[in-house]
Design a protein that fits this description.
104 residues, elongated, single chain, two-stranded antiparallel ribbon
């Protein structure tokens, strides 16, 4: 415990509990998304994703609930990226065929 001055008295600051602040949800999703894309979602284990991301398996389970939760988060992020790319393409002053070509 760290002691913090509080006016005329000194109070004890409790240590943070739970996963460390270094856990980056988006980083885990990016690693999972790229791994699933390159190797297939069945071929990549959650242990391998944890190893690649440098996080513990319990941390991933706390954040995503299960391996399926991580896969859902990765697919959802991938869909969001596709939609954002499509929306950016629609802003171009191009015809529809050119927009589709740029997306593909």
């Amino acid at each position: 415990m760290n002691k913090i001055p509080d006016g005329n008295k000194v109070t004890a600051k409790k240590a943070n509990r739970g996963r460390p602040k270094t856990f980056d949800r988006n980083h885990i999703i990016d690693i999972a998304m790229m791994s699933y894309w390159k190797e297939g979602p069945i071929a990549v284990s959650i242990n391998e994703i944890c190893k690649r991301a440098g996080v513990s398996k319990p941390s991933v389970y706390r954040e995503f609930g299960s391996e399926d939760g991580l896969k859902r988060a990765a697919v959802s992020t991938y869909c969001d990226l596709l939609i954002a790319q499509f929306e950016r393409g629609m802003d171009l002053e191009s015809n529809f065929v050119q927009i589709l070509d740029s997306l593909i």
